[in-house]
Amino acid sequence: MIQLHRYREVQEFKNQVEPLLSKNEVLHNLALGILHGLNESSKPNFMGVIFKDSRVVLVLLQTHPKQIILSQIQKLTEGELSEAAELLQEIDIPGLVGEKQTVLYLSQKLADLKNQEASLKMDQRIYRLDKVKKAAEAEGVLVKARLEHLPLVTEWIWEFMGVIGEPVSKEQAVKTGEAFIKAERLFLWEVNGKYVSIANATRPTTHNITINFVYTPQKERKKGYASSCVSTLSQLMLDSGFQTTSLYTDMTNPTSNKIYMEIGYEHVADSALVLFHEKK
């Protein structure tokens, strides 16, 4: 029997789902990383669990205005996913992100039920690294970003968000840059006194941390800077005590996927972000 339970209290939700998500920190890094940052004063848009015969099979968490994170604890049949869609149709779901096949099937069922359209926004691949296989080859050094770097960091975050199709204002880019710098896990690749690439480590869980915001400005590309930056940052995170690092790649960009695999990242799962909108 498929049932939906909605949570109002953050701690009750964390107590229910964290032990389950923690069994695979890399696969569930998005939900876990956000959960680790929530406290009793946090106000997530939605917290819910789909049960099958009293066992948790799907975890739903929304803190982003445009998407609900869907974490799959146990695979469901298409019939069971259809039942889940029936239960979820009364909830305002702007988008779903999670394991690709589950998200694609569930989102189409939801779109049909709500007389909406579902469109694939991001087709991604989740990678895990246990050991760096290819150390930095490009010249340069990894430098921790400081507040004096904020103007450059802001510009690059603003450019990066535009490139991935999630444009932000300069004000939002400043806030993001400040938060990254204060967390002390944003790094720049420096060559002869010039900064040429950037990468961030985020969403730490007990054993894993995620690398994101990997960006190299157009004129500095094809020189190996991003690869060296990510390789060195990944090693730094392993040296600091994390057992693994993880990252998401765009499936439509074979170059970045190849670069990360050469560093030592191994494919774990495919992920999709689907957005809902009214029929045209």
From TrEMBL:
It is an enzyme of class 2 (transferase). Residues 140-280 form the N-acetyltransferase domain. Its EC number is 2.3.1.-. One of its GO terms (molecular function) is acyltransferase activity, transferring groups other than amino-acyl groups. PROSITE patterns: GNAT (PS51186). Keywords: Acyltransferase, Transferase. InterPro entries: Acyl_CoA_acyltransferase, GNAT_dom. This is Acetyltransferase, GNAT family. It comes from Priestia megaterium (strain ATCC 12872 / QMB1551).
